[in-house]
Amino acid sequence: MLARIAALTERPLSFIRSFKYRRTDSIPNSSRREMDFTDLDSNATKGVNLRLCSVSGCMTEILEIRADRPSFHVVFVPGNPGVITFYKEFVESLFKSLGGTASVSAVGASGHTEKNWEHGKLYSLQEQIDHKIEFIKVQHIESPLVLVGHSIGSYIALEMLRRLPEKATYCIGLYPFLALNLQSKKQAVIVKIIMSGVLSTMVTLFVASLSLLPRRVLRLISELSNGKSWSNTAHEACCSHLPQYHTIRNVLYMARTEFIKLSETPDWEFMRENQEKISFLYGIDDHWGPLQMFEEVSRQASGIALSIEREGHTHGFCCTEAGSKWVARHVASLIKNKLAR
User: Transmembrane stretches, by residue range (predicted)?
Assistant: First the structure.
């Protein structure tokens, strides 16, 4: 998704707002909300709830489904942008694929929210890691804990595994971004933007200015830029979050700290020590998690379970219903096999 934001200097992205919210209690200042997803799968036994909770003093968007009698808890960490509503279909499909045996909580990134709750504060990669650890503590997430991350969320999930060795039993990385890809032209463009104060400001102002356009114009831009494969949920998430000035600033700032940290050599020793607890899913043509990295992981930590997705879904699988459902089924299969062993 960061590559799409970088491309905004060439053609606009789409933003359309149509999420409807209703509070789940009558307290005026309550931070708990439920999202009314009109396209919710009628076969789902439980609906997806979007709520706000305070984590380390930061208002955080949580997308979740709670099982009646969970045998474990899945905590999902998004990529960057960390707008959790992109993953509505994924969370929904994962819960169904697990047969309602597990609760699923997807934790949005600090500062990547619809409203400017934190008054423009910027959050680094390390602060996002600390934020997810604190979420598990303050929400009293039950054990055993299964961690699932997408893109840079895979790196965050690994760090959570490091800091929660007794509680976390399994870690799955989806299209993982674990190291810089020096052969990627897209990453080279992104580096120029995020490392330049002037270019970062220009991109931020441009993206934020799109919110001033009429809705019908935004929809047209959406169809031209992203095609019709994107789900309504993905378009809605774009509209409600990405045009926000504070959100784009956080997206670019987090990316800057990502690129600095991931220029270091991955901690292969840690991965080898925990290889029985780790699985990765790679894509065929993914510059964030290229197949060269797939091969490097297999050499450095041969015990890690590796898969390659060959169904034609992209790194941004969460933007399509087909991608969300396929990846959810794959994750559920990994979890079931792991727990069976």
Answer: 189-213
